[in-house]
Amino acid sequence: MYRSEHILKGLSNQYYRATYKSMGFTTEDLKRPIIGIANAWSECVPGHYNLRQVAQRVKDGIYRAGGTPIEFGVIGGCDGMGQGHDGMHFIMPSRELIANSIESMAQINLFDGLVLLGSCDKIVPGMLMAAARLDIPRIFLPGGPMEGGVEFDGRQADQTSSTEAYGMLSAGKITEEEYVSLENTACPGCGSCSYLGTANTMCALAEAMGMTLPDGGTAPATSSIRMMKAEETGVKIMELVEKNITSRQIITDSSIRNAIKACLAMSGSTNAVMHLTAIAYEAELGIKVLDEFDTLSDTTPQLAKMNPSCKYSIVDFYRDGGVPRLMENLQSMLETDVMTVTAHTLAENIRDHKYLYPATGLVNHTLDDPFGYTGGVAVLRGNLAPDTGITKPGAFDKSLHHFKGEAICFDSEEAAEEAILAGKAPVTACAPAGPENAAKIAAIMGLEAPSGDKMVAHVMCNGGCNAKENFEYRGVKDCLAATKVCGGDAKACRYGCFGFGSCVAACKFDAIHVENGVAVVDKEKCTNCGACRAACPHHLIVEVPYKQKVFVDCSNKDKGPAVTKVCANSCIACGMCERTCKFDAIHVVDNVAVIDYTKCKNCTMCAKACPRNAIEPIPTPEEKEKFKAAQKAAAEKKAAAAKAAAEAPKAE
User: Fold this and answer.
1) Which member of 6, 260, 313, 580 has the lowest number of beta carbons within 10 Å of its beta carbon?
2) For residue 113, which of 343, 348, 345 has the smallest C-alpha distance?
3) Does residue 576 contact residue 594 with C-beta atoms inside 8 Å?
4) pLDDT by residue (tens digit) across 312-359?
5) Exposure of 50 in the CB half-sphere (CA atoms within 13 A)
6) H helices within 472-521, ranges in order?
7) Angstrom distance (rounded) from CA 496 to CA 106
8) In angstroms, rounded to a whole number, what is the distance separating the alpha carbons of residues 129 and 278?
9) Contacts of 428 (CB under 8 A, 6+ apart)
């Protein structure tokens, strides 16, 4: 018996049928399963702007499969619009309002199933929390991500490019005409923000935990695939109703754990920790999400990278196989016997998935070739975070893993922001997570601050260059040197070089000299080693583009127990590793750094010293064993579950 039949079937329930018929529903409509569509459409959120069209295609699918759709509205605020003013205090509470309103409407109307339409930061977890509470058949479907905008600062632009550009405009790095133009080209159409922020992370994780159809989490908002997925969702919700596959059969400890591993493997938003915790709580599960993140981050490799970890967008991730390929590559570590909204298990979804685009390997990597051997999200513990903190090591340079310096303390976020923008505090200061800080951080990134004894700033030089991953930079195109001293012109730089000569002493190629109190790079001699940048006490030397990249063949891979290897990633024989090693274990031979594994002590100092990141960590024997043990345990658990299922008595 369907839930809706309690109020729609029988002579005594004429009141309810008459109420529906006042809105045009027919007798035949009310004999079918009633499917609620919770639609967060509005003109306030770009990620929700297409949800009217999406909802119509969902309705088409429901009608086609023999159901009756009934749509109702749900609030949804854009985190970006709520930043920098009092509205930011209302964003997080809106998650609970969304969950409460959907739960209320589903129970008031006794819907037989639900389709949840939403795309952005607090809306997605709020809808999933409601699904976890209700335990009726339901599917979540987002509106899809936005396409990237015009090329800016080495990548496709998005909203954060606009705020970064404001800082660059203030610093005289771009013209007002360029700044105004970006306003019209940064966001080419509707959709959730094109980078891997909280919105796209949660949409991807909804797919990873089985709450969204394959590819439904990341197909672009303006694509035909988005509309196809909408109609397919309408058909599938009817199948779930017929088979009585409910929320809590899908949202389980195992599926939450799979979502955690997916988040770690893609270096997703740190906010996923609190949202997955809330979803698990609403589903009355025993899993400790924070502890799982802490434990699994040690054994889950990072297999996918996208903005802000690199230049590639969430749409690039989708075209490189998206969540299905990520789950396929990660499947030996997943619990693949879990049920999903396809009415099939995760293992069956992986087996049967048809990819629309060929694999590029740019965004999704395999277990044999990970971006990193540990997860892209980590739990912090220590005196600065006694109750733990969450960070995203997969999105920042490894040089930031260790920091030593003066702590300048403030009583409020506003005071810290004012001091940073005024040049009275280090720009390397850590800002709280969340969209309310994105504009401030981006503006700071675009600024040059005045000099001062306590100033340690990562700046853009007057050529408009800014270090980016994979040696792709914006700005000067014909400079051979990898370094530039803020334009090499004291008048062009508001910092001004102090003329200490630390860079001169560090350079072994005689490529930099102090002239008239300013350090100047000789492009012909510079080998891009970065020794001068490391030596500069005020971090005034930044990278700019160069024409030729040097790649070497890795001849030391898997030779012994050392924790480091010289990889095919642009060794330039600068000798920084050789000078750093205390054990005489690494030397430059024939212009390539070579490790003597009989002397190597696995200290990794050479890897930290290498300015080109050409020396990368590889697992120690202990790490390899731990990694293999985790994979073995997952395989044994999967085998045990399969055996138990096979031996369980089957219902007649």
Assistant:
1) 6
2) 343
3) no
4) 999 999 999 999 999 999 999 999 999 999 999 999 999 999 999 999
5) 24
6) 502-506
7) 64
8) 7
9) 403, 405, 456, 457, 458
